[in-house]
């Protein structure tokens, strides 16, 4: 797919990975509509939208399609975090995270796919998951389960939508230096410890992940894949014998 002249939607594009992705898509020549509750610095069209609210989401996608006459690319990025012990986790906190991370992803994928099917020109959808949906992070059960759900949603959607020429892929970032990750600064030494465990020796940046997203948008023979973009953090093994060698 050529991105020059394409129309793209990015949810959660006001900050972090979403902001970097919106900027990268614009640099590639796309017209970018950002759906977010905050002001977006890189948007040709900004639509205030709570992705977990079905009416708002349907209206926002419809506004973009009406403005630009169609839709070629959708990046499902909006997400929130949370931390609680499983025994202390309330149903309200569980629902808060699921509402944005999984329900919002489903609604966005469905509405953007409907617009692409109507146009008949196919398209590319990329959903942002997390390596936390594949690994085990204590006190993050609701977040981890939401991101595992996104990965499976990608695979099922890719299978169903392929006949319409729509490719659906996911990106699973690891520790990425974004406003959401900044919440871990209250944990002494966490940032440094995670960076040291990455094969590439540092935290990722939002721009690192945005490059992966844009790349997946352009790969015409790739669908149903969840690409880990974590600098090798998930390669670290707790039973690696070399860790015990002096």
How would you explain this protein's 3D organization?
The protein has a single domain (7-230), classed as Rossmann fold (3-Layer(aba) Sandwich). 40% of the residues lie in helices and 17% in strands. The protein has helices spanning 16-27, 54-68, 91-119, 141-161, 190-197, 206-218; strands at residues 7-11, 31-36, 45-48, 73-76, 123-128, 166-173, 176-177, 204-205, 226-229. Strands 3-2-1-4-5-6-9 form a seven-stranded parallel β-sheet, sandwiched between helices. A two-stranded parallel sheet has the order 7-8. Helix 1 packs across helix 6 and helix 3 (91-119) packs parallel to helix 4 (141-161). The longest helix has 29 residues, at 91-119. It is globular, with a radius of gyration of 18 Å. The model has no long low-confidence stretch (mean pLDDT 96).
Number of domains: 1
Largest sheet: 7 strands, parallel
CATH architecture: 3-Layer(aba) Sandwich
Helices and strands, in N-to-C order? EHEEHEHEHEEHEHE
N- and C-termini, Cα separation:
50 Å
Mean pLDDT across residues: 96
Helix content: 25-40%
Assembly of the depicted chains: single chain
Kindly estimate the percentage of residues that lie in beta strands according to DSSP: 15-25%
Using brief descriptors, characterize the structure shown.
single chain; 246 residues; alpha/beta; Rossmann fold; 7-stranded parallel beta sheet; two-stranded parallel ribbon; 6 helices; globular
